[in-house]
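Structure in, sequence out. Go:
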């Protein structure tokens, strides 16, 4: 789809605000240099952002001759965005100011038998009640919610959440009716929200071609080009975990055989370890994965062999993505990466040249996510921020005056 002048202006607005959030206080001149935009373009965008209450002037600096330059910063005392990370076992809610700093957070555990939409929404509502009391008169600009599974972002529907057996649940409408916030609600899945979080506050800021690989119970890739999340025709872009690396391989939960997820998803990793060491069946997935990491650090043969096998299949999958997408940066994230990253990353880097084409591999930086923040909640809140900027008529209106 061809970009309109408003699309371009909004994309430039996001770029300016991302750099401002990262480097405040700063000046229009520095923002222009960092974003490769003209000073005039940046000045117009900053004027709009100030009018919207998103940016404020916080002082002046010596320009080395001539008039002092105004210093700019996000309006941390203004409105707030709320990001919610909904998983099978918890609801984690964070409130962010316009600098994307956390001003409040609440955790609500979800019991194994609490898997109906009404019960999950009840936990979100309980968390919202707590932050409402503490926010006072601060204005909520938007609410972003990350749900597991497939999400129809246009209609606000949870299309399929396999672990809860949800099908076509009108989650946004149900949540809006329950919360009665009167603000826009944005839904997506963790794969997409983590990628948006990387664009706003992670390694992906300023990267033209970004791939975020999520290793967890499931496996997927978030893609972003030119600073914007790539969704595909049906918001299904990024199902990298269900691309085939061995047609005769093990059965995947999607029904196909030999998918990447069937080799490097958490159940597959533990299954491979269990074939060599019975401890893989002990405890929860997280506990078993931590035991595997400990066994690898101790140099146990079964753990070392498991890591090597997983790294080989992961390298094949990452190479396919590198060859196809030709990204500037590949970030590995997800809870499995958090636990096994020390073991997997060196083995992955060692094996990649045997699978990937030399030219795209040379251009791609490979990095493990080292953010201590909850990138799911942050990305959900960033979706709300993007939506807030997108829906306000004053953004981009300067060209129409």
């Amino acid at each position: 789809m061809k970009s309109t002048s408003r699309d371009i202006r909004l994309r430039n607005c996001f770029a300016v605000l991302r750099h401002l959030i990262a480097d405040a206080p700063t000046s229009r001149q520095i923002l222009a240099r960092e974003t490769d935009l003209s000073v005039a373009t940046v000045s117009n965008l900053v004027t709009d952002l100030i009018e919207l209450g998103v940016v404020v002037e916080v002082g002046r600096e010596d320009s080395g001759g001539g008039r002092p330059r105004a210093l700019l910063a996000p309006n941390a005392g203004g409105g707030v965005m709320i990001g919610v990370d909904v998983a099978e076992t918890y609801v984690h809610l964070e409130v962010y100011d316009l600098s994307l700093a956390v001003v409040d957070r609440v955790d609500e555990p979800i019991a194994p038998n609490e898997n109906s939409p009404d019960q999950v929404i009840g936990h979100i509502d309980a968390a919202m009640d707590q932050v409402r009391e503490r926010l006072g008169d601060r204005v909520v600009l938007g609410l972003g919610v990350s749900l597991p599974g497939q999400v129809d972002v246009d209609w606000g529907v949870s299309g399929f959440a396999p672990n809860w057996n949800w099908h076509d649940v009108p989650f946004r409408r149900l949540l809006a009716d329950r919360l009665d916030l009167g603000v826009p609600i944005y839904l997506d899945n963790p794969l997409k929200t983590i990628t948006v979080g990387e664009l706003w506050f992670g390694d992906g800021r300023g990267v033209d071609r970004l791939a975020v690989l999520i290793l967890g119970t499931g496996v997927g890739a978030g893609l972003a080009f030119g600073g914007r999340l790539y969704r595909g025709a049906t918001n299904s872009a990024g199902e990298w975990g269900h691309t085939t690396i061995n047609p005769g391989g093990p059965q995947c939960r999607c029904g196909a055989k030999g998918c990447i997820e069937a080799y490097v998803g958490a159940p597959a990793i533990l299954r491979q370890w269990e074939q060599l060491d019975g401890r893989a069946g002990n405890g929860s997935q997280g506990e078993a994965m931590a035991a595997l990491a400990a066994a690898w650090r101790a140099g146990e043969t079964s753990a070392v062999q498991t890591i090597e096998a997983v790294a080989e299949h992961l390298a094949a999958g990452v190479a396919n993505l590198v060859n196809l997408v030709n990204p500037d940066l590949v970030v590995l994230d997800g809870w499995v990466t958090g636990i096994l990253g020390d073991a997997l990353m060196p083995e992955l880097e060692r094996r990649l040249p045997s699978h990937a084409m030399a030219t795209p591999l040379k251009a791609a930086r490979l990095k493990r996510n080292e953010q201590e923040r909850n990138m799911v909640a942050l990305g959900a809140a960033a979706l709300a921020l993007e939506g807030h900027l997108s829906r306000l008529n004053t953004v981009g209106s300067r060209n129409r005056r």
